[in-house]
């Protein structure tokens, strides 16, 4: 089994020759020039059939021992003029590097090539690397890989496998350098790919698997856990993962019931949790009694999360549950505007999904693989998120929004249109903005008129369909200084 590297971020090492670039044509041309200068008929095809070993090893069988060093120096001096501009990247090389970047990772180039010439290739071909380490071979590559914290090393030669294993990294081999699949597997590689074109898909799966393993290991260490459970994709996955790691008897699902939680969300959330064998607690929360919540400035979510955790933590303690966690994912942490995360952190809530590096897309993919019904559930923020900042949040406003959204959904789906995301935004002064999936716009005029009439019937004096369609967090644009509320 390959080792389990750190969950986030990935650090990936790559070999250069015949892994990222096709150096064989340039090597052939350069060896012919060198042979002509030395007056030696070098077996060029044989020497370039399995590139990778250090140059001195390639030259040694064909020159007197005392001539090997000077010949290598001359080869390196000739190299820039004969083997840089003519050397192409191998298929999938740029895409492989980009795949590492998509996961927020670092790229370490560790090669047996003379460093200056390796750098010339990197610059000429625009290879996106963070660190370049040259003139290292076999197990010697492990020093650089360990120093940079590489959890994966990608190469084409059995000696690249040797370097990866010596570094304790996952060895990924590609069949572009002359070594056969059997040879690479015999050397101990963990993965064999036909080419780097297969690497992005492999890396996506590897990162996901690694992060899920980190999540489950973390949860198993907790002993017991109460999950702040809304029924959305994030908290549902966290609940399911906790059950896998701890067993249902050591997990609690706690859903705060208040005016801001749509009634339509409550029964499905409870059914999912109970289907996992988890006890569900539904305490009443009273965020509406907090002045900061009602005022609905940019930090409304702080007061909401504070209320939830101030109710949840004592409940967990009464049940002998050691820890409390929220479904915050890795995207939430870097989103820049999440005052609720601060409130939860101040109250000691854990964020296992974020700690494992699981993004929203990965949450959905793991949920799909685990056959959780929430894997493609649309985001369902609380009803208060529909109220424009500065407009007071009241039970009346929230009930009106809930009625209006139910009416719009009924109108659109009744017309045979597939509606996924929907928000009715309360803009104040009895004005509403209706946001539906942008792909449905413009709505047929008859339908638009009918659903706006339903919104007015729900209690809004004025209503319009937003031209840009649904946008998560659309009301945040109106905040004059979001940094103030972090």
Automatic annotation (TrEMBL):
Q: Signal peptide position in this chain?
A: none
**Which SUPFAM superfamilies did the record assign?**
Adenine nucleotide alpha hydrolases-like (SSF52402), HAD-like (SSF56784)
Q: Tell me which Gene3D superfamilies the record gives.
A: HAD superfamily/HAD-like, HUPs, Putative phosphatase, domain 2
Q: By its UniProt entry, which InterPro entries does this protein fall under?
A: HAD-like_sf, HAD_sf, Ni-pincer_cofactor_biosynth, PGP-like_dom2, Rossmann-like_a/b/a_fold
Q: What is this protein called?
A: HAD hydrolase-like protein
Supply the source organism's classification. Answer: Bacteria, Bacillati, Actinomycetota, Actinomycetes, Propionibacteriales
């Amino acid at each position: 089994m390959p080792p389990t590297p750190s969950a986030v971020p990935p650090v990936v090492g790559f070999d250069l020759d015949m892994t990222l670039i096709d150096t064989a044509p340039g090597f052939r041309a350069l060896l012919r020039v060198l042979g002509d200068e030395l007056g030696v008929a070098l077996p060029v095809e044989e020497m370039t059939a399995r590139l990778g070993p250090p140059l001195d090893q390639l030259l040694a069988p064909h020159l007197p021992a005392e001539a090997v060093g000077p010949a290598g120096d001359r080869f390196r001096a000739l190299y820039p003029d004969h083997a840089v501009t003519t050397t192409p990247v191998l298929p999938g090389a740029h895409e492989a590097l980009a795949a590492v970047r998509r996961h927020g990772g670092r790229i370490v180039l560790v090669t047996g090539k003379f460093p200056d010439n390796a750098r010339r290739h990197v610059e000429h071909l625009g290879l996106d690397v963070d660190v370049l380490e040259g003139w290292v071979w076999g197990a010697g590559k492990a020093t650089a890989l360990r120093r940079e914290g590489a959890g994966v090393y990608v190469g084409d030669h059995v000696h690249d496998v040797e370097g990866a294993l010596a570094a304790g990294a996952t060895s990924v081999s590609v069949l572009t350098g002359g070594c056969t699949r059997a040879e690479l597997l015999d050397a101990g590689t963990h993965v064999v790919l036909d080419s780097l074109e297969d690497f992005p898909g492999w890396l996506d799966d590897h990162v996901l698997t690694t992060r899920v393993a980190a999540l489950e290991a973390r949860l198993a260490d907790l002993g017991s856990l109460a999950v702040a459970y809304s029924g959305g994709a994030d908290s549902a996955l966290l609940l399911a993962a906790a059950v896998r790691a701890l067993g249902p008897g050591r997990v609690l699902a706690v859903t705060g019931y208040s005016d801001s939680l749509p009634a339509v969300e409550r029964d499905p959330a409870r059914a999912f949790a109970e289907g996992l064998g988890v006890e569900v607690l539904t305490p009443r929360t009273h965020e509406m009694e907090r002045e900061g919540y009602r005022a609905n400035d940019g930090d409304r979510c702080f007061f909401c999360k504070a209320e939830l955790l101030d109710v949840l933590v004592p409940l967990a303690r009464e049940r002998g549950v050691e820890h409390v966690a929220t479904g915050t994912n890795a995207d939430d942490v870097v989103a820049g505007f999440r005052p609720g995360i601060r409130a939860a952190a101040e109250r000691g809530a854990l964020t296992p999904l974020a700690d494992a590096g699981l993004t929203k897309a990965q949450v959905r993919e793991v949920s799909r693989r685990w056959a959780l019904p929430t894997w493609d559930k649309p985001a369902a923020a609380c009803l208060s998120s529909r109220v424009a900042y500065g407009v007071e949040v009241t039970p009346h406003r929230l009930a009106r929004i809930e009625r209006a959204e139910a009416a719009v959904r009924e109108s659109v789906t009744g017309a045979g249109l597939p509606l996924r995301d929907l928000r009715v935004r309360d803009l104040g002064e009895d004005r509403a903005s209706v946001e539906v999936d942008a792909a449905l716009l413009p709505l047929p005029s008859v339908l638009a008129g009918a659903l706006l009439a339903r919104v007015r019937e729900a209690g809004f004096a004025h209503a319009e369909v937003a031209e840009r369609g649904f946008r998560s967090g659309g009301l945040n644009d109106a905040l004059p200084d979001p940094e103030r509320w972090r």
